[in-house]
Design a protein that fits this description.
Family: Belongs to the class I-like SAM-binding methyltransferase superfamily. RsmB/NOP family.
Low-confidence stretches: 123-129, 315-322, 434-481
Number of domains: 3
CATH topology of the largest domain: Rossmann fold
Region (Disordered): 421-481
Oligomer: single chain
Shape: globular
Distance between the termini: 125 Å
CATH superfamily of the largest domain: Vaccinia Virus protein VP39
InterPro entries: MeTrfase_RsmB-F_NOP2_cat, MeTrfase_RsmB-F_NOP2_dom, NSUN5_7_fdxn-like, NSUN5_RCM1_N, RCMT, SAM-dependent_MTases_sf
Mean pLDDT: 83
Radius of gyration: 29 Å
Active site: 355
Pfam families: Methyltr_RsmB-F, NSUN5_fdxn-like, NSUN5_N
């Protein structure tokens, strides 16, 4: 009984964007973590099918169950290992078993499939053959890459060096691990490797973070000592990554509207050793870009609320009309946030990211924003990355289980255009290669306004008055008889 209650509670929190599935499961302190995690993930995977069964049988009305608990119980009854609890719940589910089984059978006939797994969306089925590895980011605020590798080797892990091909990740097993190709502080392990109870994780020396989620901070790459905004910061992994890149120097303003998420984030940042941050329980859209507090902000990371459709354990479960309406509302909010980020007067670069696979939340938002902000342009990110943004925004990055072995993700970087000088047309795009350092492909700049002013002033100043008098005296002496 406790298993189903806890699973239902976590499902509800996931849908409310209060955390990732694995994080919520391990934070629950449930006795059998693996069993709980499997039940939550599988129920979420079949969520839309379970919703259809529950609706067609009017189960909620007849049993007074809440939707998330009903989904968990129906999953285990029809698809899982059977309802394992006793008491009233088991009696209730067995009473409605034949009706529920009939509803499932009708759905299979309608979709012309015979297996339960064939009911899943094509994207969900694809992920079964492309398991996401366990990514571990080394927290450079507390340790070094070499020290973590040495520590793990002493525990019996086998370090295989830096991966050179994506296919190398498919062969990880046991205690073998690799260093990531793109992010030097990211280690890659078999998907079954668990670090939630490991000393390095509990001490904040390593951060359990998907590779795609590491890209925004890595690509923004704020210089040490800079002023940076993390606009929608919770749960905080990207914030701690930014702080590590900044070496805890400068100012890192982090905003989030959810007080509970911000409280959890504060604990995470404390464990990670972050000290340069300033947390605010505030709506980013209500932050005044002209405030003197943010006059030196040049870098902004914006990862706003989204559909979460790229997360393997989080699938859309609403009907198509509802989904379209929801995506339109999310895209409008995301565009509003992105436009707001560009209003900070000194901002030079803004990274926009989502964990969504939908074009409405990604390329369409960026395209609309650029149309309203001609002073900004796209940066061409990581030319050798396997998956690009949809045409024509191929400067952006996409990520997926099939092509990058990560969760679904989207990243774009908007950069302020240099002022045009001497009639030269500056390029529309700058390039950020694999190393993360910008390629200098803009023409050489003309002298600054200050330099031109100094030069012009020097040319316009009259000669020294005393020298002029001496020359006049000499001239008069020559004219005397």
């Amino acid at each position: 009984m406790a298993l189903y209650m806890k699973a239902a509670e976590i499902l509800e929190k996931v849908e409310q964007k209060k955390g990732a599935v694995k994080t919520l499961v391990y934070d629950s302190k449930f006795q059998n973590i693996k069993q709980l995690f499997a039940l939550v993930c599988e129920t979420q995977k079949y969520s839309s099918i379970l919703q259809e069964i529950i609706n067609s049988t009017k189960l909620l009305k007849e049993t007074k169950l809440r939707i998330h608990l009903a989904k968990v119980l129906v999953y285990d009854l029809l698809i899982g290992r059977g309802v394992k609890c006793g008491g009233a719940w088991k009696t209730t589910m067995l009473k409605h078993r034949s009706r529920l089984e009939s509803a499932l059978a009708r759905i299979k006939i309608k979709k012309k499939v015979s297996r339960n797994q064939d009911l899943l969306p094509s994207g969900s089925q694809q992920t079964q053959g492309n398991i996401i590895p366990r990514y571990v980011r080394v927290n450079s605020l507390k340790t070094t890459l070499d020290d973590v590798i040495d520590y793990l080797k002493r525990e019996g892990f086998s370090y295989q060096g830096t991966t050179m091909r994506l296919e190398d990740l498919d062969h990880l097993s046991g205690k073998t691990f690799l260093c990531d190709l793109h992010l030097k502080d990211l280690l890659v392990f078999s998907s079954k490797t668990d670090f939630h109870n490991h000393f390095l994780y509990k001490a904040g020396h390593i951060i359990l973070q998907d590779k795609a989620s590491c890209l925004p901070a890595f690509l923004l790459n704020p210089p040490v000592g800079s002023h940076v905004i993390d606009a929608c910061a919770a749960p905080g992994n990207k914030t701690s990554h930014l702080a590590a890149i900044m070496k805890n120097k400068g100012k890192l303003f982090a905003f989030d509207l959810d007080a509970k998420r911000l409280s959890t984030m504060s604990t995470l940042l404390l464990r990670a050793g972050v000290t340069c941050h300033q947390l605010a329980n505030q709506d980013f859209l209500k932050v005044d870009p002209l405030s003197s507090e943010y006059k030196e902000v040049k870098y902004i990371l914006l990862d706003p609320s989204c559909s979460g459709s790229g997360m393997v354990c989080l699938r859309d479960e609403v009907s198509e009309p509802q989904k379209d309406g929801r995506l339109q509302a999310l895209a409008a909010f995301q565009l509003h946030c992105l436009k707001h980020a560009l209003q900070f007067p000194q901002v030079q670069r803004v990274v926009y990211s989502t964990c969504s696979v939908h074009t409405q939340e990604n390329e369409e938002v960026v395209s609309a924003c650029l149309q309203h902000n001609p002073g900004f342009r796209l940066v061409h990110l990581l030319p050798n990355w396997h998956e690009r943004g949809h045409d024509p925004l191929t400067q952006c990055l996409r990520a997926s289980t099939a092509k990058t072995r990560t969760h679904g993700f989207f990243v774009a970087m908007l950069e302020r255009r240099p002022l045009q000088t001497d009639g030269q047309n500056l390029p529309m795009i700058t390039t950020l290669p694999v190393g993360g350092e910008e390629k200098q492909d803009t023409p050489q700049s003309s002298p600054s306004d200050e330099e031109r002013e100094t030069s012009q002033t020097a040319n316009e100043l009259p000669a020294n008055p005393s020298s002029k008098k001496r020359r006049n005296r000499k001239k008069h002496k020559k004219q005397e008889p």
